[in-house]
Amino acid sequence: xxxxxxxxxxxxxxxxxxxxxxxxxxxxxxxxxxxxxxxxxxxxxxxxxxxxxxxxxxxxxxxxxxxxxxxxxxxxxxxxxxxxxxxxxxxxxxxxxxxxxxxxxxxxxxxxxxxxxxxxxxxxxxxx
Length: 128
Fold this sequence. Notes:
Order of helices and strands: HHEEEEH
Region (Disordered): 109-128
Protein name: DUF2614 family zinc ribbon-containing protein
Organism: Paenibacillus thermoaerophilus
InterPro entries: UPF0295
Largest sheet: 2 strands, antiparallel
Transmembrane segments: 12-37, 43-66
Oligomer: single chain
């Protein structure tokens, strides 16, 4: 599987993907004028430009949301790389080394179980 990153970085990644998709849609619409020409090309270009603009506005909303979450996130020091990282919620990942971070020992990874407790106690209960 792929390596996941922190929640803030994932929101920023979705914002970047929406930006690229919106700009690509606009370029694709402009190609309608080049290849089709005339009134039909302008109509297709207009439709694609409006769709691209809506996708870009979605990107702005995602970036704004990520920024607002970033301002209220708790800054902690990562135990692995010793760099300050922002944490959202009960569990998150380090923005630099992707180490799983948690406030609650139940959600901590098995290798980070507190000393003196069993790893089975530190893991979240299974849903069976």
